[in-house]
């Protein structure tokens, strides 16, 4: 038990620093001119989970219940080069723990998915950049990478 406690005490500062780095990135651009941001926090994720369960979609409810937050920052005329450079620096720092898991490109538009697995949680960062759009999406929580694609099925009702 003592060894586990010591291990946790040694690992926690590294995990906290890594999460703070992504938080600093999103806070910087969420407040900047030329950017739009959306933050879905834990309470919203729980509410969405309950709604999915009420509709009978237990798998989606479980996925949403495990997510701590989703942060999105999109470029609306700000400095695209600096934004992309900062996002790539976030995932390429030697101790960031992020690994590229998928990359696709089409007509000068690229999308890259980076994943970091921590002790209990995972962090997914998606960077899309190009002439059509430049956006960074960050998902943090307990989730299965294969299930995350289900989030794209959630659409607001008009």
3D structure, described in words:
The structure is a single chain. The protein has five helices and six strands; from the N terminus they run αβααβαββββα. The model is unreliable at 1-18 (pLDDT under 50). It is an alpha+beta fold. The longest helix is centred in the N-terminal third of the chain and has 29 residues, at 2-30. The chain is globular, with a radius of gyration of 17 Å. It has helices spanning 2-30, 42-54, 58-66, 80-92, 145-148; strands at residues 35-40, 67-75, 99-106, 109-117, 122-129, 135-141. A six-stranded antiparallel sheet has the order 1-2-6-5-4-3.
Keywords, separated by commas or semicolons:
158 residues, alpha+beta, six-stranded antiparallel sheet, 6 strands, 43% helix
Q: How would you concisely characterize the structure shown here?
A:
With 158 residues, this protein is an alpha+beta fold. 43% of the residues lie in helices and 30% in strands. It has a 6-stranded antiparallel β-sheet.
């Amino acid at each position: 038990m003592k060894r586990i406690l010591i291990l946790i005490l040694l690992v926690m500062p590294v995990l906290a620093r890594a999460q703070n780095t992504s938080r600093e990135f999103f806070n910087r651009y969420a407040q900047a001119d030329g950017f739009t941001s959306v933050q879905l926090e834990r309470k919203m994720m729980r509410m969405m989970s309950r709604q999915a369960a009420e509709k009978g979609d237990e798998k989606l409810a479980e996925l949403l219940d495990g997510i701590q937050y989703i942060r999105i920052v999109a470029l609306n005329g700000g400095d695209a080069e600096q934004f992309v450079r900062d996002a790539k620096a976030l995932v390429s720092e030697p101790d960031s723990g992020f690994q590229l898991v998928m990359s696709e490109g089409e007509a000068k538009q690229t999308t890259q998915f980076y994943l970091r697995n921590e002790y209990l949680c995972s962090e997914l960062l998606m960077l899309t950049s190009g002439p059509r759009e430049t956006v960074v999406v960050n998902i943090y929580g307990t989730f299965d990478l294969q299930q995350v694609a289900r989030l794209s099925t959630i659409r607001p009702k008009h």
